[in-house]
Amino acid sequence: MDIGKKVRQARLALGYDQQELARAVGLTREAIVNIEGGKRRLKAEELWAIARVLERPIVYFLQEEEGPRLAVVARRGDTATREAKRAELWLRRHFGEYQQILRLLGRTGRPAVSLDWPDGGTVVSQARAAAGEQRKYHGLEADPVVNLRDYLESHVFIPVFGQAVEDTGFCGILLMAENDAAVAMLVNQKLLTSRANFTMAHEYGHLLWKLRQGESGDDVCYREPSGHNEEMFANAFAAHFLAPDQALIEERSAVVPSEPETIMALAARYGLSFTAMTYRLQNLGLLTPDEANSLREQTSPASLPSFSREGESFSAISPLYWRLVLEAYFQEELDAARCGEMLDKSALEFEALVGDLDAELVEEEALLEAAR
Predict the structure, then answer these.
(1) From the centroid of its chain, how far is CA 309?
(2) What's the CA gap between 46 and 49, in Å, rounded?
(3) Does the structural domain 69-242 have CATH classification 3.30.1660.10?
(4) Residue 37 CB neighbour total at 10 angstroms
(5) Does residue 233 contact residue 121 with C-beta atoms inside 8 Å?
(6) What are phi and psi of 43, to 5 degrees?
(7) CA spacing 20 to 30 A to 160: which of 47, 73, 198, 314?
């Protein structure tokens, strides 16, 4: 394997020049030139540093291996910034590690979803039916999903990761392995709470579409929703899953067009933005188009008491993934060094974290069933 060539490929993929990479890993530009040209061998610690900066697993540089492919990126625009690309590569690395843990523990990671909704109708009606079917499948009825990340991890068995990406056009990504049932998701930690919720639900919709259509993952897609059936399905699914028709109809008494705070409170209750909620209510006939337009034009949601910029801290490492790493460690399938690497920590940091944990904690039924 030509390690130097792989270093160059990884560097160019993130748009680094040789001087930038050299500065980031504490080498000279001449050293990077010689490494890429095959004139200088890499020390182990140098390869480790380069792998971290370029968001690649060590194995990427040591053997020919294609990583999992992205199913969709929920963002607007036709280009990706370096930060967005780094987030994608970071998720790819952890997704590969997630798949390794599943194999060690004898799990598939198959998401628990229902694809049993009626055919026919428009894309939006299909999305509405799919949203209702998932709620029925998991016994949610019409209740708000208070913690969507927890729902996706504990009920659907999708690990949800987070990365802070300054490019707020980047919302999140869904990663699917070709010829494998495992799925993972990433959300931009910089998003407002409502946008993060919508992004998770949106990517959930993409997953259902692809499973229903029997599609494997595509490469990264930067899509506009207009005229694209899959994107329209994902958007409509997210809206109807987060705020189902039945629930909003029952909330009719809370809809007072002259009091925007009641709309904001309703939006916060169901994890939507103020604007998204006005559209949902308009589509259900609970607000007239004039009332909805007036609310959108004359209201500053950030000034309302129920407006929330941030919810609970959105950790980078998926709680489901973290629990599986612990389980593999206590079952002696992985050592502390490998577990630390999987959690972006050193072996000593990992050992300090688990030093006070009882192995029985990861043998509880809820953890053993987490990824099936």
Answers:
(1) 19
(2) 5
(3) no
(4) 11
(5) no
(6) -75, 160
(7) 47
**What is the residue extent of each domain of the chain?**
3-62, 69-242, 245-303
Q: Give CA–CA dist 264/121, Å, rounded.
A: 32
C-alpha to C-alpha distance for 134 and 138, rounded to whole angstroms: 6
3-state SS of 20-78 is HHHHHHCCCHHHHHHHHCCCCCCCHHHHHHHHHHCCCCHHHHHCCCCCCEEEEEEECCC
Tell me how far apart the alpha carbons of residues 364 and 361 are, in angstroms, rounded to a whole number: 6
Provide the residue count of the chain.
372
144 in Cβ contact with 61 (< 8 Å): no
Summary mean pLDDT of the chain: 85
The first and second tokens of residue 171, run together, are 């919302």
Joined tokens for residue 183? 């799925």
Beta strands in the chain (DSSP E): 69-75, 160-163, 170-176, 183-188
Q: How far apart are CA 48 and CA 65, in angstroms?
A: 18
CATH topology of domain 3-62: 434 Repressor (Amino-terminal Domain) (1.10.260)
CA distance 67 to 79: 21
Q: What is the pLDDT of residue 352?
A: 86
pTM of the model: 0.86
pLDDT, average across residues 194-205: 93
Distance CA 45, CA 127 (A): 49
pLDDT exceeds 70 at position 67 = no
Q: Which residues have CB under 8 Å from 295's CB, separation 6+? A: 257, 260, 263, 274, 278, 287
Q: At a CB cut-off of 8 Å and minimum separation 6, what does 26 contact? A: 49
Could you tell me the two tokens for 304? Answer: 């309302």
First to last CA, the chain: 36
